[in-house]
Amino acid sequence: xxxxxxxxxxxxxxxxxxxxxxxxxxxxxxxxxxxxxxxxxxxxxxxxxxxxxxxxxxxxxxxxxxxxxxxxxxxxxxxxxxxxxxxxxxxxxxxxxxxxxxxxxxxxxxxxxxxxxxxxxxxxxxxxxxxxxxxxxxxxxxxxxxxxxxxxxxxxxxxxxxxxxxxxxxxxxxxxxxxxxxxxxxxxxxxxxxxxxxxxxxxxxxxxxxxxxxxxxxxxxxxxxxxxxxxxxxxxxxxxxxxxxxxxxxxxxxxxxxxxxxxxxxxxxxxxxxxxxxxxxxxxxxxxxxxxxxxxxxxxxxxxxxxxxxxxxxxxxxxxxxxxxxxxxxxxxxxxxxxxxxxxxxxxxxxxxxxxxxxxxxxxxxxxxxxxxxxxxxxxxxxxxxxxxxxxxxxxxxxxxxxxxxxxxxxxxxxxxxxxxxxxxxxxxxxxxxxxxxxxxxxxxxxxxxxxxxxxxxxxxxxxxxxxxxxxxxxxxxxxxxxxxxxxxxxxxxxxxxxxxxxxxxxxxxxxxxxxxxxxxxxxxxxxxxxxxxxxxxxxxxxxxxxxxxxxxxxxxxxxxxxxxxxxxxxxxxxxxxxxxxxxxxxxxxxxxxxxxxxxxxxxxxxxxxxxxxxxxxxxxxxxxxxxxxxxxxxxxxxxxxxxxxxxxxxxxxxxxxxxxxxxxxxxxxxxxxxxxxxxxxxxxxxxxxxxxxxxxxxxxxxxxxxxxxxxx
Length: 713
Prior knowledge:
about 725 residues, alpha+beta, Beta-Lactamase, 5 domains, 5-stranded antiparallel β-sheet, 14 strands, about 15% strand
């Protein structure tokens, strides 16, 4: 995300903060100027809640919420001017400003909930709320949810491991093939959230439903018991005082007074008196004087015992009991309970359950998301690092990356103390095992293990053989551990150079290395590696000589050509290697350095590829042991860019002497080789001086073509 985008987001957040703060302050102030717009003045809420709730702690909580909200909103408006000087308190994307936004919006929502809990006795209560209150309440919930998300993102932003995972996920999605992207992928975080919240919701809904049904039945049972008792008792009192209107009125007045403090308050308690010999019944006395004279529903006239009925038209529960005198019904006592009054306690409880369920679900979402991260994050980090490990290993297997144990790393960043940590530790241990095995496997073997079966093919490769001269003498009298340490150092120097020049180590045989090079520049890379090996080994020799320690020399053989490349070995132990005359000749040339006192010999195949880059001199035309076809060999002397005139002179004299030698002009050849040997200490010239001496006493056959046959490997 660039700075311009971040700046736009910051400005947008500030605008939202200012808009919300002004909306809340308007909700507080406007009722004092437009009383008709709001039914309740915000600063009166604590006292209204206390009056209805009757609990002092409700007054304290409501008071704190009421006065905290405008304070935070006021500070939000002021903070706009200090967002640069006091960014940690005023910048909308920082921790404390986000927290203040969450607190202010949560306080407002809770305050509204407290008022609803105190005054909601039926569904008609919600019609008294102004539209502005509904809009502000909904906006506050959205505002709170949004900044809760920002808070979670803030904590994740400071988590370096999670940021690394986000980058990994972005790159992974970018690299995915379009054909794989079928449907919508649901991550473990979403699955965990949906699973837990679904379970919580089902349990909450089921438990609430069961409790509310039981509560409803309990309420109805209590009302029926109360109503039937009241109607029956009233019928008995009226029967006893049928001729004493004053006593009946006193009884009704007493019941009306008791009704004010009753859990279930009736609307009216009336006595319907029979009119003469008719079947009409009219209210003679009642707690509600406005209904005096009303007639009884004719369907009630046949009732002979106390009954309860629900009046769906009036939405009331009516309890009626006949008044008998001399076994004749002279009237009815009727107690009427409004449905709203009956279910007021039930409705309050229902509202409370809904409010607390909403709060609980909201907190559950946040808590599951936060604490779920303690489960999810280790899995995500584990997946990320295993993927990186697998990708590195796969690239090595496919030959897209150098095979090196140092490149195969696993970061154990799981901090938990559970099975995930155990798994991460085991993966780390497995990685260490693989890293320990890799150095013992050639790159060619490593990159072909995916085949899963023996394979072979014809390939054109360049081979570099090296051998340490005088190593046995150097190790005389040394402990085995010291011998291995010295050998490993020399082999490590050479191997590193070979691999740094795009080569591979096929195998180690004692103090000998077989290196392979592939690709269009294989000969150039092999020659470059050989020159660097010579330089590095010369430096090692100088260090040992300064310490008056025994030193070693290095011999190098180079050849390029077709070979059979494939898996060789037994069923239980196989290796990938190269087989053929090309390999054998390279090994013979490495050994031929002893004969010619040279450092690095190559075949004509290699020479033709590198002659423009390196100074090389032709050494001889030889037939190696076991082969009759002669091979022209060359010694690589130096990089042309670094070469001095001395090497050019040696090359010139030596090749001139070689020409005279092949033409059997022994004296001329001897003269040149002797000059080259004496003036430049060229030990290779001395080899030909000895040969010329032999040929002078024992001349070669007339058909001699200058080929020297090697009798040793």
